[in-house]
Automatic annotation (TrEMBL):
It is a multi-pass membrane protein. PANTHER family: CLAUDIN. Keywords: Cell junction, Cell membrane, Membrane, Tight junction, Transmembrane, Transmembrane helix. The gene is Cldn1. It comes from Chunga burmeisteri (Black-legged seriema). Belongs to the claudin family. Pfam families: PMP22_Claudin. GO terms for molecular function: structural molecule activity. The keyword Cell membrane applies. PROSITE patterns: CLAUDIN (PS01346). This is Claudin. Claudins function as major constituents of the tight junction complexes that regulate the permeability of epithelia. The chain crosses the membrane at residues 7-27, 79-99, 119-141, 161-184. GO terms for cellular component: bicellular tight junction; plasma membrane. It is found in: Cell junction, Tight junction; Cell membrane.
Length: 211
């Protein structure tokens, strides 16, 4: 029962992490900047994500524009996109594999060892997906931080970390933690010992010798 509870907890954490990775990928707030200008009325917030850039006016109106061409994007942004999409696809595969190996499911009930190995394999895929998302978000965040502290970057165009980055970091951590819990449900190999042989008991002596 303890291993089943740990397995269920791991799957729930990993699944929530996978959902968080999807949300982080779709959000446009990967980096953000505020610009007030000479008049507070013209204040606006700028957001940039993996797929679009948005501007929010002081009146609350938001305007977003999808990036026109994939070939015009920077190589770093394309690599970040690829890693996040790969993390989502790996997470989808991990969900199906881990569900097959869950103890509460009726699939593969005739072979419990293979069933638990499927859950472990799903946990490994969840860990890989979380690592891909963690690399993508950390790489993007490092670029934002370097541009922010670059003295040649104009003050009005200095971006900071957006909420999508924090969600991505938390989601990647949940996916890896859940995958680790799933891996802890690996069946232990039992050591088999040869059966002990009983020694024949000596017949009680009757005190009579037969020739």
């Amino acid at each position: 029962m303890a291993s089943g509870g740990l397995q269920l907890l791991g799957f729930v954490l990993a699944f929530l992490g996978w959902i968080g990775i999807i949300i982080s990928t779709a959000m446009p707030q990967w980096k953000m900047a505020s610009y007030a200008g000479d008049n507070i009325v013209t204040a606006q917030a700028l957001y940039e994500g993996l797929w679009m850039s948005c501007a929010m006016q002081s009146t609350g109106q938001i305007q977003c524009k999808v990036y026109d061409s994939l070939l015009k994007l920077e190589g770093n942004l394309q690599a970040t996109r690829a890693l996040m999409v790969a993390a989502i696809l790996l997470g989808l595969v991990a969900v199906f594999v881990a569900v097959t190996g869950m103890k509460c499911m009726k699939c593969m009930e005739d072979d419990q060892v293979k069933k638990m190995r499927m859950a472990v394999f799903g946990g490994v895929i969840f860990i890989i997906a979380g690592l891909a998302a963690l690399v993508a978000t950390s790489w993007y965040g490092n670029r934002v931080a370097r541009a922010f502290y670059d003295p040649f970057t104009p003050v009005n165009t200095r971006f900071e970390f957006g909420s999508a980055l924090f969600i991505g970091w938390a989601a990647a951590s949940l996916a890896m933690m859940g995958g680790a819990f799933l891996c802890c449900s690996c069946p232990r190999r039992e050591t088999s010992y040869p059966p002990t042989r009983g020694y024949p008991k000596n017949a009680p002596s009757t005190g009579k010798d037969y020739v």
